[in-house]
Amino acid sequence: MKYLAAYLLLVQGGNASPSASDISSLLESVGVEVEESRLSTLLKDLEGKDINELIAEGNTKLASVPSGGAAVASGSGASAAAAGGDAEEAKEEAKEEEKEESDDDMGFGLFD
Fold first, then answer.
1. ∠ CA(81), CA(87), CA(89), 5° rounding?
2. What's the CA gap between 26 and 13, in Å, rounded?
3. CA 58 to CA 64: how far, in whole Å?
4. Per-residue pLDDT in tens (0 to 9) along the chain, 112 residues
5. What is the Cα–Cα distance from 112 to 108, expressed in whole angstroms?
6. CB burial class (10 A; 0-12, 13-18, 19+) of residue 2?
């Protein structure tokens, strides 16, 4: 992954087709040890391909990956509450869930 990230950084910086030495020098400048076999495999796989087309192709594949797990869980809770017929109870449960979620940081904030 680090080799691909370095490749993409170099492309973004204006180098349309980075060489192995370009990627190696970039990675070594930040203290990353380079495995030549992995780097050569990446360059072999990317040879003759347009990076923008590869990214677009990857986005279409990524779009088919289901990512609505949280919505399904909350939707099933709402349907169960509706089946019971007590809307007030559902509101109460929602408030309790909101309180629980806000306590996840246990008093420690990101910037404290």
1. 75
2. 12
3. 10
4. 899 999 999 999 999 889 999 999 999 999 999 999 999 999 999 999 888 899 999 999 888 888 876 554 445 555 554 455 556 666 666 666 555 555 556 666 666 5
5. 6
6. middle
Model confidence, pTM: 0.54
Cβ partners under 8 Å of residue 38, min gap 6 = 3
- Shortest CA distance to 24 belongs to which of 39, 11, 5? 39
Token pair for 7: 């490749």
Single-letter residue type at 24: S
